[in-house]
Every structure is written in structure tokens, then in C-alpha cells.
């Protein structure tokens, strides 16, 4: 029931209207500010949820956002919100129910591919990222937040939680190697777990203050499910380094990695090699990443 309409609405009570990811508008604003968005750019919002990121980018930066999500409930709610938006946002944002792992994408179409806490549900990550790099324009940017797992042995409590959520969690090292393998450059897999924990502590404090109102609107069971989920992350999973919140950023090369400098008849062909992909890992190895998941 995590993505039932009721489940989505109860997340919004914590993260804010249209948002279903850790930190809501606050973390979204912080992350998208790194993308250097310009009016008229095309953005693919993969796993768009209830539309919060799409609306923010369209309103603040004047970009065109195509949001897709496999959940009919998510897209239904996003469409409801879209109908309420001012024309300058409404005409820049579109939402679609699609399986992003199987659909066909146009080549070199998007300036940015963006995703918040959705790809952690997908097992065949390399195949997906090959599609995503193909639909980016040369020089286009990738930004993905996702739950990851620490590079350690995990307790049964955590593995049971991951299995119950059907998460497919990778380590930062695995993500770094895969993004380089499919052809991205300037790969950074940043550890945003401290930010996640700070946000969740604030959200938990806010949530406890609205308990009576929340229970009246939903149920006491809904409250306890979310409250316990937050406590487990703060007190165990993230604190112990099992769960990591990662922010992956990368760039599609602006030109082919190998291009002939000369092809004149009788002249040997020489290849110019682009610089090797640069890779950095930011943050601690075992501290710990969006769609709000308890």
C-alpha cells in the first residue's frame, strides 16, 4: 500500500504538498540548483511521483519537464495538481504512466535526466542507464538520488526491510563503476546520508506535533507505520551504515570518445582520445539516500 492514493497522501503530510521524497521542497531546491537549468531546456523526470520536482523546476527555471511514473496513483495525483497550476507551469509540465525500463526514448532529446528515489526499485540498472545516456543530448546531465547500501555485512532487520520494500540496493562503488562503464563522465556518487538524517529528524519532530490531526485524517496505524519507519532509519539503518542516501551526478560526453583527426586518402587515421572519466566519491564510505520510503 506504499503507493496507494492513501499512502501517497500521508507522505505529503510530512514532505509537503506534491512532494514524496526526503526533505520535500528543501532538498529538491538544493539539488536542482546544481544543474544550471536554463529556460527552454528539456528535462526527463524519471519516477516523477506526485510532481513536486517537475513543478518546481518549471516554475523556477522555465524548463519543460516530461514526468513518467509506473504508478497510476502517482501520475493521477500529479495530473490533479497540474490542473490547478498557473499556465506558465501547466504548459511546461506533462506526466505519463510508463514503464521507464521498457519504453523507447528519443535519441539526444533531453538536456537533463533527473530522478528522485525511484531507481532503487529497478534490478537491471545498467540496461536502464544505457537508455538514459542515449536520450541525453551531448553534454547533458544526469542527477539521481537513491537509497543505497553500505559496503558491509547487513543485519537481518535491514535485509528483511529491503526485501519487504522490494528494493534493489547497490553500493556507491557499484554505482560508480556502472556509470563509467555505460559511458558517463564526471561521475560523482555523493553520500547524502547526513543530510537525510537531519531532514528526517526535523520531519519526525513535525510529524509528532500533528499526530492528532493526522490520525483524524488517516488512522493510528498509518501514524505508527510512518513513525516507526523513521525511527528505524534514524536509530539503526542509517546510523549503522547499512542504508545510504546517494546523489549520483554525471555528464554525457560532448563528443564521441574516439573521433578521427584525419581521413584523407593515403593519410593514416589517428584517434583522439577524450580524457579518462573522472570519478569522485564524496562523504564517508559507510554513512548513508528519493521517494519517501518508511
Task: Give your account of this protein's structure.
- Residues 258-294 have low confidence and may be disordered.
- The protein has 294 residues and is an alpha/beta fold.
- It has helices at 5-15, 24-32, 52-61, 72-84, 87-90, 125-135, 156-165, 172-181, 193-209, 211-217, 220-237, and strands at 42-46, 64-69, 93-97, 110-116, 136-149, 185-191, 243-251, 258-260, 271-273, 279-282.
- The protein starts with a helix and ends in a 12-residue tail after the last strand.
- The protein has 11 helices and 10 strands.
Short description:
The protein is of the alpha/beta class and 294 residues long. The chain has helices spanning 5-15, 24-32, 52-61, 72-84, 87-90, 125-135, 156-165, 172-181, 193-209, 211-217, 220-237; strands at 42-46, 64-69, 93-97, 110-116, 136-149, 185-191, 243-251, 258-260, 271-273, 279-282.
Question: How is the secondary structure organized here?
Answer:
Blueprint: H1 5-15, H2 24-32, E1 42-46, H3 52-61, E2 64-69, H4 72-84, H5 87-90, E3 93-97, E4 110-116, H6 125-135, E5 136-149, H7 156-165, H8 172-181, E6 185-191, H9 193-209, H10 211-217, H11 220-237, E7 243-251, E8 258-260, E9 271-273, E10 279-282
